[in-house]
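Anyone up for a design puzzle?
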């Protein structure tokens, strides 16, 4: 039996229809700017999210790097959350390649950075300090949706203090789908609302949207021209990249609204684990369920992950156990995962 792979939403295989779209894509040389499939994707995502321009890049990490290095110069700094990808999970790239210093802040329980903390972290113009140039936020953050009210306030504060704003929206569409569900709107309207208040946004196609690779960085024309230069330096300028861009265009047309199913499956998984002694978790807003082992079960995470693997259920746990739902996990898969976890605890 095929394992249920809940390690990440990056593990999805391209669907038959997506493969067909990739094979049918007209291709050119994107370094010469004449790959029609790349150009079409860039125009589409920029328009969807309310930007002048966009740049297709191989990974979300490179997208954030291009973003930070296009906002900041050597000796500048960006304000960022401790758990954000573009601080914690990218090998310190902005500092290593750009000599841009991060100013990490602790998150509030809802994932936000307190406005008072942001305000206090902005350095005066003084030779002692790095120049504070950018506020970087992430949405969703660890599967949590930052509220629109908060995003509006934080970007307004940044702007009033002369900072640029960048959103790591690797899972922007998960945030949009969840936000649409809670306010009765639709995902595309919400994605635009969330993204368009930032100066730049990075979106991943290889997470919940289910493509083999690729991300896009959106911003003004001038900003994207700078980012294109950084992408070249980072070795991210690809040639017949339309093969991948076509998968992303397909995903934007067909895989956005369906994220609601992944969110429903994550809730279903959480509901299935209710009542098991030794587990602590909150019902997820999107597609990521974090579970803490507590009490006598506290030291058993490696043992549990190993057991689940034997049962054909894959998960990870670096800080906490993490179960991620996606395109290749259906209701039956969730039920299998619940049964396997329950049998470990004999609950
Ligand atoms: C996955 C992820 C990235 C990086 O994407 P890669 O394509 O793996 O480099 C950036 N930010 C967030 C929030 C992510 O989840």
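Challenge accepted. My sequence:
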């Amino acid at each position: 039996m095929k394992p249920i792979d809940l390690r990440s939403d990056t593990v999805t295989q391209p669907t038959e229809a997506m493969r067909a779209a990739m094979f049918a894509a007209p291709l050119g040389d994107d370094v010469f700017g004449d790959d029609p499939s790349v150009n079409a994707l860039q125009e589409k995502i920029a328009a969807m999210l309310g930007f002048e321009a966009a740049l297709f890049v191989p990974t979300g990490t490179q997208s954030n790097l291009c973003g930070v290095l296009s906002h900041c110069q050597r000796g500048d700094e960006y304000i960022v959350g401790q758990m954000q990808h573009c601080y914690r999970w990218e090998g310190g790239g902005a500092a290593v390649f750009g000599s841009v210093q991060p100013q990490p802040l602790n998150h509030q329980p809802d994932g936000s950075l307190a406005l008072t903390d942001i305000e206090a972290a902005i350095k005066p113009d003084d030779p002692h300090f790095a120049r504070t140039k950018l506020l970087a936020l992430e949405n969703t953050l660890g599967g949590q949706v930052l509220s629109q009210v908060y995003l509006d306030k934080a970007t307004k504060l940044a702007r009033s203090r002369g900072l640029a704003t960048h959103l790591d929206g690797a899972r922007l569409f998960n945030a949009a789908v969840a936000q649409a569900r809670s306010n009765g709107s639709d995902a595309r309207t919400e994605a635009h609302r969330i993204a368009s208040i930032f100066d730049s946004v990075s979106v991943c196609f290889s997470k919940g949207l289910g493509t083999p690779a690729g991300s896009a960085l959106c911003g003004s024309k001038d900003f994207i021209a700078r980012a294109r230069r950084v992408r070249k330096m980072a070795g991210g300028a690809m040639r017949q990249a339309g093969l991948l861009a076509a998968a992303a265009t397909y995903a934007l047309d067909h895989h956005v609204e369906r994220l609601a199913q992944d969110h429903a499956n994550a809730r279903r998984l959480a509901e299935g684990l209710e009542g098991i002694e030794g587990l602590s978790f909150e019902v997820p807003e999107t597609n990521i369920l974090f579970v803490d082992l507590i009490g006598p079960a506290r030291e058993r995470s490696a043992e549990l992950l190993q057991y689940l693997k034997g049962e054909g259920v894959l998960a990870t746990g670096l800080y906490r156990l993490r179960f991620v739902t996606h395109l290749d996990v259906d209701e039956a898969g969730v039920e299998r995962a619940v049964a396997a976890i329950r049998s470990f605890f004999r609950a």
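A detail worth pointing out: The first strand starts at residue 4 and ends at 5.
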